[in-house]
Amino acid sequence: MDNTIIAALIGAIGGLIGAWIGGVISRKASIEAVESSNKNAINIMQRQEFFSASSKFKSAILYELSGFYPIDQNWNENDFPRIYESIPKISSAATEFRYFVTRKTEFDRTVSAYNKYCRETTYESIAAYTMFPSMKKERDIGKREEFKNIVEHLLSFADEK
Questions:
Q1: How far is CA 43 from CA 37, 38, 64, 99, 122, in A?
Q2: Cα dihedral 114→117→120→124 (10° resolution)
Q3: Where exactly are the structural domains of the chain?
Q4: pTM of the entire predicted model
Q5: In whole angstroms, what is the distance from residue 160 CA to residue 57 CA?
């Protein structure tokens, strides 16, 4: 066999092997690019769903508790039953939003604390605490402040991501 034929065969085989290796590398790179693009798209969609759900959750809480939260005025005794009546609506909003929460146990505890506060706190206990400062102990927070803390903790879950 002539050296030129051998050189041509080696060149052709080398070209085929090179093309095959290049194709494999190119295919792998394109698969990784597509997978990365899909992951980014999924992450973006999940963040959009979270922001939509958190906005809906915040809106439900702020709507139900308008006049009570944020605390910027004295609470009216006639309006006070609305706090108790807000339990099902806040619980429903929390149930819908819970899917998006990463700290579910703490979220559940906060929702339970809200429900307990609304069931057990009376207008009279808040008024008495405000009217009789001697009832206050050091490090004691008032019932209105306790309510504010619970609601702020609930709202904080909507700002996690």
A1: 10, 9, 31, 16, 45
A2: -140
A3: 3-159
A4: 0.72
A5: 13
Let me know: does 154 contact 110? Beta carbons within 8 Å.
yes
Q: pLDDT tens-digit profile of 125-146?
A: 877 766 766 666 666 777 888 9
Highest mean pLDDT, choosing among 2-11, 26-35, 109-118, 137-146: 109-118
Alpha helices in the chain (DSSP H): 3-64, 81-85, 87-98, 104-120, 123-131, 143-156
Query: In which residue are the tokens 């605490």 written?
Result: 129
Report yes or no: 113 and 120 within 8 Å, Cβ to Cβ: no
Residues 145 and 124: their CA atoms lie apart, in Å, by: 15
In the predicted model, is pLDDT for residue 27 greater than 80?
A: no
Helix, strand, or coil (residue 99): coil
